[in-house]
Every structure is written in C-alpha cells, then in structure tokens.
Amino acid sequence: MQQEKKHTGHGDHWNSVIEGFTDTKIGEVLTEITNTGEKVLKSSDGQYALIIKYQSPIQGASLVRIVDGKNQLVSAFPILRIDNILHITIEGVSANDEAGEGYIQGTARSGIELDFFDPLFCINRSKYEIGKEYAFNMGAILYHFEERKENLEFVADSGPEKGKTFKMRNTTAFTMTDFYGEFQFATPFRGFVSEFEFKGSKFAQLVYKSNSGLTGDPEEFSFPMIIRKDSLKNNEPKDGDPIMGSGWLQGYLADSFDEFGKEEK
C-alpha cells in the first residue's frame, strides 16, 4: 500500500452536492445541520459527536468536539447512505486527531487496494485492528465524468497476438490518486440506476463494477457513485459509451447505524 499521501480535507465534495457553492451557502447548510439535526451519534470516549440531518441517500453531518460540556464545530461533510457492502482488510489508518477524522487504507477481497474517508471514524475508530477484515458500506461522490475518447484501441507489438488490434472500449479501471480518498475510474456507461433530488438539485446514481482482481473474484469490486446531473452540462452519455472521471470515496462499518434504526432504502 502507498503510505505517503496528502490530506486535502474532504476533497471537493460540498461543491459536488450543492449547486452554486459559496461560503455563504455552505454556512447556511452547516447552521441548518448543526441546529436542526435529527440524529446525534457520540463517540465512546465522549470527546466527539456527529449531528446528522437529511434523508438518504445523502445526509449531512456536523462533527463537533465536546470540551467542558460545550460543542465546538470542527468539520462537516456529506454522508452517502446507500447500502453496498465491501469486505476490506485494514492495512493502515491515517487519523487527524485534532479534527477526529480519519482515512482507512486496505485491500478488498478482489485484491484491489484502496483508501477512503470514514465519515463515522470518531465513532468506530476504537474497533479497527490492522490486518483484520471488516464489512464497510462503500460509495462515492463524483466530481465529474465524461466520455473517454482516447486510448480506445491498441495493436500488440509482440507475443502470440502480435499485430492484433485490441479494443479497450469496455475496459474498466480504478486507481487511487496521491490524495487520500480521491480516485479515478474508467468504465462503460451502463445507465443510471436511480435519480433523486437533494437541496434543489437533481442527482443520478450509477455503479462502478471492476472486471479486474484475483482469479475467481471472491467478491465483486463494485460500488455506487452519485453525481449532480447539471455537472454533466447536458452531455449525458449513451448506454455502452466509455466514460472516465474522478470522485471521493467513503465508507463506514456496515452495522454502524443498527442501534439507531435502519433508514428506508
């Protein structure tokens, strides 16, 4: 696993889920979450609390540090609430102790290495052990995607297939970047599986499915991705078109919300 990475907070997620992102607008959203949140999850040591608002599949969370009985807002981020379990063996944890946040580094059963933001890190941190496998709910907020027009075919210049042209239109690819939680992908577009609205914007959900990994694929490497539709600028791809893009990956322990009641799907 690559250990030396850069922290960038939470990437560009608020700009990806709130149309017309400005400091004033995000301030209004954070005030709304903090003052009128429907759920509060507290860490076992009593140092942090997550105030959660809005319905699935996008929820907003304010992370506060509790000092002398008073709440100090230290962070805020969207939580993607779509059930999609991937089993990950933890190989590292990168914690921001001041903010009570953290990223998980690990390997999926398919053999793919990844790192992701844990929105419930302050709640679940004490449960994690290096080398142990956990079931995570995994999903991504996309910054963008577009039709992939380059490198769609190549000619083998050696080996038994020398001279043969290979088409890469249906190739899938997934790679993490130099920043924690941020990834790039390529895949054929298989259509949107659902659409919904959040804070006045229309969103669509698509699914990334890898065709790589260990022989036999012990568990398919697959996760939902959401995107604000106006970011596509009316250039929605057709079924089968090769696309590429980038986003912010997050995951939390699959049973994290059990004691607080399950959300409707």
Structural write-up:
Residues 260-265 have low confidence and may be disordered. This protein has a domain at 13-80: Nuclear Transport Factor 2, Chain: A (Roll), CATH 3.10.450. By secondary structure, the chain is mostly beta strands. Helices cover 9% and strands 46% of the residues. The longest helix has 14 residues, at 23-36. The strands form three sheets. Strands 5, 6, 7, 8, 11, 12, 13, 14, 15 and 16 form a ten-stranded mixed beta sheet that branches. Strands 1-2-3-4 form a four-stranded antiparallel beta sheet. The chain is globular and about 70 Å long. The protein contains three helices and 16 strands.
At a glance:
The chain is mostly beta strands.
Helical proportion? under 10%
Summarize the main sheet: 10 strands, mixed
Shape: globular
CATH architecture of the domain at 13-80: Roll
SSE sequence, one letter per element: HHEEEEEEEHEEEEEEEEE
Radius of gyration: 20 Å
Tally of contiguous helical segments? 3
Query: What structural class results from the helix and strand content?
Result: mainly beta
Distance between the termini: 34 Å
Low-confidence stretches: 260-265
Share in β-strands? over 45%
Topology readout:
Elements: H1 13-17, H2 23-36, E1 39-42, E2 48-53, E3 58-67, E4 70-80, E5 85-96, E6 101-108, E7 113-117, H3 121-124, E8 133-147, E9 153-155, E10 165-167, E11 173-176, E12 182-188, E13 194-198, E14 201-209, E15 222-228, E16 242-253
Parallel strand pairs: 8-15
Antiparallel strand pairs: 1-2, 2-3, 3-4, 5-6, 5-8, 6-7, 8-16, 9-10, 11-12, 12-16, 13-14, 14-15
